[in-house]
Design goal:
The complex is a heterotrimer of chains A (about 475), B (about 600) and C (about 120). Chain A has helices spanning about 35-40, 50-55, 60-75, 140-150, 170-185, 205-210, 225-230, 240-255, 275-285, 305-330, 335-345, 395-400, 415-420, 425-430, 445-465, 465-475; strands at about 5, 10-15, 15-20, 30, 80, 100-105, 155-160, 190-195, 215-220, 260-265, 290-295, 360-365, 370, 385, 390. With about 475 residues, chain A is an alpha/beta fold. Chain A folds into two domains: about 5-80; about 100-395, Alpha-Beta Barrel (TIM Barrel), CATH 3.20.20.70. In chain A, the strands form three sheets. In chain A, strands 11-10-9-8-7-6-12-13-14-15 form a ten-stranded mixed sheet. Chain A has a three-stranded antiparallel sheet with strand order 2-3-4. The longest helix of chain A has 23 residues, at about 305-330. Chain B is α+β, with helices and mostly antiparallel strands and about 600 residues long. In chain B, about 15% of the residues lie in helices and about 30% in strands. Chain B is globular, with a radius of gyration of 27 Å. Chain C is an all-alpha fold and about 120 residues long. Chain C folds into two domains: about 10-40, no CATH class; about 40-110, Irregular (Quinohemoprotein amine dehydrogenase), CATH 4.10.940. Chain C is built from four helices and one strand. Chain C starts with a strand and ends in a 10-residue tail after the last helix. Classes of the chains: A alpha/beta (about 475), B alpha+beta (about 600), C mainly alpha (about 120). At the B-C interface, helix 2, strand 18, strand 19, strand 26 and strand 27 of B face helix 2 of C. Strand 4 of chain A pairs antiparallel with strand 1 of chain C, so a sheet runs across the interface.
Chain lengths: ~475, ~600, ~120
């Protein structure tokens, strides 16, 4: 008889039950006792079906074991030893792929000088100070970007304003929104707006405008004063907390039409996730907070080293547990990292690319050059076209051809690849000098965090499946946390 | 629907006078490279003795003392290919012939310079106008090169000397200069660099003008074709001796199949046609066994080369509803097989087998094609001719496990019987033997319908109806059993014959927001797809035509009796595409 | 499925697929792939389809229609003049120099094109 073997999956527990996360299908199954017993037997050697039935005969009747084996075979959790798994197909997306989001760099100037900034810091890839690009995007260019978006999008389009400091170019932002609304109506599409800002320029009239126009807002902020003022400083070195705090509070008071999120950059010196979360949600009242480790080359002082990652993971887990306890009672919790991952787990996402950059999302530089995403805006080597001439499909095709997970051989044995697919291109570029490498420096972190999210998912499936069902009901726009 | 002309495929004859080649003086015999094609007829050329042909063609094609005519003697071809040559002579080379003379020339040359039965058998699909999957397997490169523009069957219908094949390729390049380029593929990298270099090359035997060490695709093809399809063959030599007017007059039993309508059976009478050499007339009547519909049919035909039947149901090719007949007469004179077809693109066809009827019983086939195990009283109708008045059930033999329990009725051409199939009857095809006659695999024995399939698995329809005719496509759903091993795709799988299904179209998503299904046409519940009209469609984005690709889906509600309870689905791909602006079908052959 | 309980959407799809029998038996929801699996690797082109793909006459190089020049009338002069498909479109070099004689704007006057019986 044929020998059985394990195929690829990640086993985890939640709510006292056993679960399987199958790779690469990204299906999540709850496993019962007989199923678990079969898998345990297969973890040490490769018995045949009869042998498995035999060995488990004292615990489960034969038909039950055989049924479990059949189901595990069908789900591809196990397979036959003589049949090797075929590598994943390299299937490129159908073209033309509808554009979902466009990110406009309305300016590359900024009134802060945050030490770790990827645009201005030592790791920057585009020289915006002495380079040739315009400092501000013109209205004409912004309009062309709108036209490009509406031409390439599906029925719903998203436009995000970014910078530098976005609000330095508020006039263009305002005019573009008006123009975009008009054009969208003309072509029968829906358009949605959001922006990211450091909050220093949130004047009352701007706040009013944002609230009136239902613009999504993300505030780049790092937490309580001593953490915020460590890196988010003005050009003279003084901290920004005192300037932004009242403005943010005013914004949160006035702007109730869209949830407002904070985006926190974690560094080696600002790793106290729970404290930051508490401060931002309780002191300020942010609806949600998203955390991202700083993108940097390893030699920077603020780069998070291995022990830093371990501590960060521990912190994330604590906060994740808090999220779980809230979710069990259908109470809102603003730790958006968890929520976003849970949604992807629930959908069974299995990514060929780490994100939609160059595919459903594009960035536009101040001059109107189109890049794979906002972090590459203005860089020649990652240019995909211009707003005038459109997306260069040949270059885009080459980009997609070169960054497919099928070519990231380091990833092929990692169970977390359906959700990770190698990680951020910009991160890889800063770390390794090329966008094509997977981010091996945070594999442990990713696996650790994904395992945590799976456990949370499993526990919710047991203790409050109604929470998970919401992902099916509220299939709404995901707010891009940039 | 206007049934105008026919479709497809080109053969080009080389226009002689305009191709003057600069030649180097012939090299000394000791070191001979291949010499360029000379204008004289080859030693192996077949003489032309028919004065009609000599008169019609002799002003340009000179005859030597052995009665061999330049170009003509070095070639053998099917009647269709000869017709195209003659039409080209008239349109491009100022030849003027009356239709009668043209037909006589076609007939004469098809007989003296035709294909032997063994040479023609494999490529009958070409004359039969079938849209099938076929490739010249012996040389993939030649197959690809030649079938870029037209059917490979056109090429395989030729037998030529090497010089003649060379001239054929040269003629392609003369008439269609782009053929040297990327889309034609004759040469890598386009036409030869300079005329002088080309001339030097030709002197060395390289038609491509480049260099023999780096053989161009066209030269490779020339060599393959010259080797595989030379002028002389043993089969032709033998057939030229044996060829004669076939004796066909008499009665024939018809067994036919029309996709979408099922099997048909009947009787056909062939009579000699007065005043026409190798001419025949037919009269027939046949019935579609599924519906009982009866059709009467008449035709007039000419037999070329002693075995190539070409018939028409009406006299002029433009008559509405004209059916053409292309058939292959077996040497024993007992069986004729082929296709009857109609439609602007010859898309509607009946596969025909005729069996001669003398005095003994002849079995043509059955109405059902599958018998289920462990079921009794399955009604089967057996068709043929000369059935005796009384028939015992035991005389009808389907093989192991299948018993004819009773003969319900018997007439000279139809037997109706009830059949019991045992539970342990072996699954698979069965031959039917009765009255000294037998027929191979009219039925299969199966236990359950495992799946259904749709044929043709890749269909094609062409838009039309305003200025150009359209090409509908008829689909059929057929039952499939996975056989004794229960596994699909293994040799013991069984085709269970047609069944009635519910038809629908599904979008074949080749790109986002694919909307073909709204424009391509309609699929009737008979399985007939009728395409939309041609021309730019202002209602479609970009004023596109109504082309597209879609899935044609058949759903069959299996019953417990079929052995399956859930609905079975099968689907086929349908390409709905633009018209052809040229009609290549033969108009004179068979008249 | 009894021993494996599907939790996320993918798992439900896997379970449905398994329930329908996987190996080429059409699923009750109609997602049958029999026809696709029966076709051999390279795209299928019916006999007589032109295999010159710039962009292709009946089919594009993938065997579909998405890559064809659309509407065909838009470029018909080039097909006719450049003679890419001599078996499908009359050529203007030798056989049919006047084929587009009455057809000034192809997209409007295409009805004045004739069906040509070459030879």
């Amino acid at each position: 008889m044929l020998a059985l073997r394990r195929r690829e999956f990640h086993q985890f527990q939640g709510g006292g039950r056993d679960f399987l996360y199958l790779v690469p299908s990204a299906a999540v199954f709850e496993l019962d006792q007989p199923g678990r017993a079969v898998l345990d037997l297969l973890s040490t050697d490769a018995p045949s079906e009869d042998t498995v039935v035999d060995r488990l005969s004292d615990r489960f009747p034969a038909p039950v074991v055989r049924e479990a084996i059949t189901e595990l075979l069908n789900a591809r959790a196990i397979g036959y030893e003589h049949l090797q798994d075929a590598p994943g197909p390299k299937q490129l997306p159908m073209m033309p792929f509808p554009l979902n989001t466009i990110v406009l760099n309305v300016t590359n100037q900024c009134n802060l000088a945050c030490t770790y900034c990827y645009e201005y810091g030592e790791d920057k890839i585009v020289d915006t100070e002495h380079g040739q690009q315009s400092k501000f995007m013109s209205e004409t260019t912004a309009r062309e970007a709108v036209d490009l978006l509406l031409k390439e999008s599906g029925r719903v389009a998203h436009m995000t304003f970014f910078g530098g400091e976005t609000l330095l170019n508020f006039p263009v932002l305002k005019a573009t929104i008006a123009y975009a609304r008009g054009r969208a109506a003309e072509v029968g599409k829906t358009i949605d707006f959001s922006l990211t800002t450091n909050a220093t320029l949130l004047r009352p009239d701007i706040i009013e405008f944002l609230a009136e126009n239902e613009i999504g807002v993300t505030i780049s902020m790092d937490g309580p004063q001593e953490l915020q003022d460590k890196f988010r400083v003005f050009h003279n070195g003084s901290g920004s907390y005192d300037v932004v705090a009242p403005k943010i509070k005013e914004l949160l008071r006035r702007h109730r039409t869209r949830p407002i999120g904070a985006r926190v950059t974690l560094t080696s010196e600002t790793i106290d996730v729970q404290r930051i979360y508490r401060h931002l949600t309780e002191e300020f009242g942010f609806w949600e907070v998203g955390f991202a480790p700083v993108t940097t080359s390893p030699q920077q002082q603020y780069a998070i080293g291995d022990s830093g990652f371990d501590r960060m993971l521990g912190q994330f887990r604590e906060l994740g547990r808090e999220f779980l306890e809230h979710a069990v009672e259908n109470k809102h919790h603003g730790f958006s990292n968890v929520k976003d991952t849970l949604e992807e787990i629930h959908k069974g996402v299995s990514k060929a690319y780490p994100c939609g950059a160059g595919l459903g999302l594009l960035g536009v530089s101040t001059d109107g050059d189109v890049a794979v995403c906002h972090r590459f805006a203005g860089s020649d080597t990652h240019k995909l076209g211009t707003v005038k001439t459109g997306i260069d499909r040949a270059v885009q095709a080459e980009f997609l051809e070169q960054h497919h997970i099928a070519d990231k051989t380091d990833c092929h044995t990692c169970w977390a690849r359906p959700l990770c697919a190698g990680g951020c291109y910009h991160e890889a570029h800063v770390r390794y000098g090329t966008t094509r490498r997977p981010n091996l420096h945070y594999c442990e972190w990713i696996r650790g965090w994904t395992d945590t999210c799976l456990q949370i998912y499993g526990e919710l499936a047991v203790r409050n499946p109604e929470f998970i069902a919401r992902f099916d009901r509220d299939e709404t726009r995901a707010e891009a946390v940039l | 629907m206007i049934a105008r002309g026919r479709l497809l495929a080109v053969v080009f004859s080389i226009a002689v006078p305009t191709l003057i080649v600069a030649q180097a003086p012939p090299p000394a015999p000791a070191q001979r490279p291949a010499s360029p094609p000379s204008m004289a007829v080859s030693d192996e050329g077949i003489p032309v003795t028919d004065p009609v042909v000599v008169r019609a063609c002799g002003s340009c094609h000179t005859r030597d003392d052995k009665q061999r005519m330049t170009r003509i003697s070095d070639r053998r071809a099917t009647p269709e290919n000869w017709e195209l040559t003659i039409r080209r002579m008239m349109s491009l080379n100022n030849v003027q012939l009356t239709p009668d003379v043209a037909r006589a020339v076609i007939k004469s040359l098809s007989d003296t310079h035709g294909l032997a039965p063994e040479e023609a058998r494999g490529i009958q699909f070409e004359a039969e106008r079938r849209l099938i999957d076929f490739a010249f397997e012996a040389d993939k490169d030649t197959n690809t090169l030649c079938s870029r523009c037209h059917s490979i069957g056109r090429v395989l219908s030729e037998r030529r000397t090497k010089d003649e094949w060379t001239r054929l390729l040269a003629m392609h390049r003369y008439y269609y200069p782009g053929i040297d380029g990327a889309s034609g593929g004759f040469r890598r990298g386009g036409p030869p660099p300079t005329a002088a270099a080309a001339g030097r090359g030709r002197a060395g035997g390289d038609q491509s003008g480049r260099g023999a060490e780096d053989a161009q695709p066209m030269d490779k093809a020339r060599d393959v074709l010259s080797r595989s399809f030379p002028l002389m063959s043993a089969e032709w030599t033998a057939w030229s001796a044996a060829m004669r007017t076939p004796r066909l007059a008499g009665r024939w039993a018809i067994a036919g199949y029309q996709i979408g309508r099922g099997p048909l059976y009947g009787q056909l009478t062939i009579a000699d046609r007065a005043g026409v050499v190798d001419g025949f007339t037919t009269e027939s009547k046949f019935t579609y066994s599924r519906t009982g519909e009866t059709v009467s049919h008449k035709s007039r035909a000419v037999v070329y080369t002693g075995f190539q039947w070409r018939g028409r149901s009406a006299d002029t090719p433009d008559d509405q509803g004209t059916w053409r007949e292309v058939e292959f007469i077996e040497r024993n004179g007992q069986q004729i097989t082929g296709r009857w077809f109609t439609g602007a693109y010859d898309e509607t066809g009946i596969d025909i087998t005729l069996r001669r009827v003398a005095n003994d019983p002849v079995v043509s086939g059955t109405d059902v094609s599958a018998l289920k195990t462990a079921a009794s009283n399955q009604r089967v109708r057996i068709y043929g001719a000369n059935f005796p008045a009384t028939v015992q059930a035991a005389e009808i033999d389907f093989g192991q496990g299948v018993k004819v329990s009773r003969v319900v009725s018997a007439s000279p051409d139809t037997l109706t019987v009830d059949v019991d199939v045992a539970a342990n009857a072996r699954l698979g095809p069965r031959d039917l033997a009765f009255g000294g006659s037998s027929i191979a695999t009219p039925v299969v024995v199966y236990s359950k319908i495992d799946a259904i399939k749709v044929v043709p698995v890749a269909g094609m329809a062409r838009l039309g109806g305003i200025q150009f005719p359209n090409r509908p496509e008829q689909f059929e759903a057929r039952g499939v059993s996975y056989g004794a091993d229960g596994k699909p795709g293994t040799p013991d799988d069984l085709d269970l014959g047609p069944l009635t299904a519910r038809w629908s179209l599904e979008e074949y998503a080749a790109t986002f927001r694919d909307d073909d299904i709204q424009f391509v046409g309609e699929l009737a519940q008979s399985g007939l797809f009728t395409p939309n009209v041609e021309g730019p469609n202002p209602k479609r984005s970009g004023n596109r035509n109504n082309i597209g690709d879609v899935w044609v889906v058949a759903t069959y509600n299996a019953t417990a009796a079929d052995g399956s309870v859930k609905p079975l689905k099968g689907r086929a791909h349908l390409l709905v595409t633009v018209p052809l602006y040229m009609e290549w079908g033969s108009r004179e052959v068979g008249r | 499925m009894t021993h494996l309980k599907p939790i996320n959407r993918k798992a439900h799809r896997v379970a449905d697929l398994a329930a329908s029998g996987f190996n080429r038996t059409p699923a009750a929801d109609g997602k049958d792939v029999v026809a696709l699996q029966q076709l051999p690797g390279p795209p299928h082109f019916p006999l007589g389809c032109s295999l010159a793909f710039s962009p292709g006459w009946e089919a594009d190089s993938t065997g579909g229609t998405a890559g064809l020049c659309q509407p065909v009338e838009r470029d018909i002069f080039d097909c006719h003049l450049g003679c890419f498909w001599p078996a499908h479109v009359p050529d203007q070099l030798n056989h049919s120099p006047n084929w587009t004689g009455s057809c000034a704007t192809a997209q409007k006057d295409w009805r004045k094109l004739d069906l040509v019986f070459p030879g």
